[in-house]
Structure formats: C-alpha cells, structure tokens
C-alpha cells in the first residue's frame, strides 16, 4: 500500500476556496481533502472534524469567544435582547458599545417608531445642524 503524503491543513482564504470547490462532497471528505485528518499506527485515517470546523469559523472571521476586557477576564456577551427596567429606563449595555467601538461622549439621534427605536450616531455634520437649530429656537 503506497504511503499517501499528508497535506498541511488549509486555513483562511485557501480553506474557504477549497471547501467551495468541494461543495458536493460530504463534510468528512471536505475536512480530509483540506488536510484535517491523521493516520494512526495501523494506517487508519481519522478525520478531525473539530479542528476543521474551528478553522472554517476562523476563516469566516466569526468570533465565538468574547474578547477579554482590560483586566483579562471575559465579560458578559451581548444577547441582542434588552428589557425596560422597573424605573422605565432602557439600558444598552457595554457589550454592545464595546462591539461598536463606542467611546464616552459619542452621541446618537433617537427616532421612535410604532414598535421600534432607531439610533443613529451623530457625526460632525449632524452636530452643526443640531447646533444651528438650537440657536434659532
């Protein structure tokens, strides 16, 4: 039995391209053909699906782990759901502001709809327009 040369596992764009080429193959075959397998002492090939799937997640740029904060501990992650508090406030937590790279002092315009609230970040042009409106009022 000729020994098959094991390929180095593909990552990033190469991995995504190869998986697209193999779209009609099973996920195990895709993993194997992308280099995510090992050969045991007895010559049996074992597909490493976990490494393959993690490499795909990384290649797509999906971040499953929350980024650690300054003191090295992970914080709460965003659930994309909030509730009105007992005092009537609607609080948008730091998980969202960190994800959007917002800084203290960033301003937003609030637009209320029948069943939605829209926030639009105020930029320099908006500030000038708001200040002009306030000056004439």
TrEMBL record:
Keywords: DNA-binding. The keyword DNA-binding applies. It comes from the Bacteria. The keyword DNA-binding applies. Residues 79-124 form the SpoVT-AbrB domain. InterPro entries: AbrB-like (IPR027360), SpoVT-AbrB_dom (IPR007159). One of its GO terms (molecular function) is transcription cis-regulatory region binding. One of its GO terms (cellular component) is protein-DNA complex. This is AbrB family transcriptional regulator. It comes from Atlanticothrix silvestris CENA357. The lineage of its organism: Bacteria, Bacillati, Cyanobacteriota, Cyanophyceae, Nostocales.
């Amino acid at each position: 039995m000729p020994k098959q040369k094991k390929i180095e596992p593909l990552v990033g764009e190469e991995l995504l391209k190869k998986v697209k080429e193999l779209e009609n193959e099973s996920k195990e075959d895709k993993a194997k053909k992308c280099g995510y397998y090992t050969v045991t002492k007895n010559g049996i090939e074992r597909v490493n699906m976990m490494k393959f799937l993690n490499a795909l997640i990384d290649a797509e740029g999906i971040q499953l782990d929350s980024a650690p904060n300054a003191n090295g501990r992970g914080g709460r992650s965003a659930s994309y759901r909030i509730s009105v508090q007992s005092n009537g406030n609607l609080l948008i937590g730091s998980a969202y502001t960190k994800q959007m790279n917002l800084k203290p002092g960033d301003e937003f315009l609030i637009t209320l709809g029948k069943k939605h609230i829209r926030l639009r970040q105020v930029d320099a042009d908006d500030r000038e327009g708001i200040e002009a409106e306030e000056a004439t009022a």
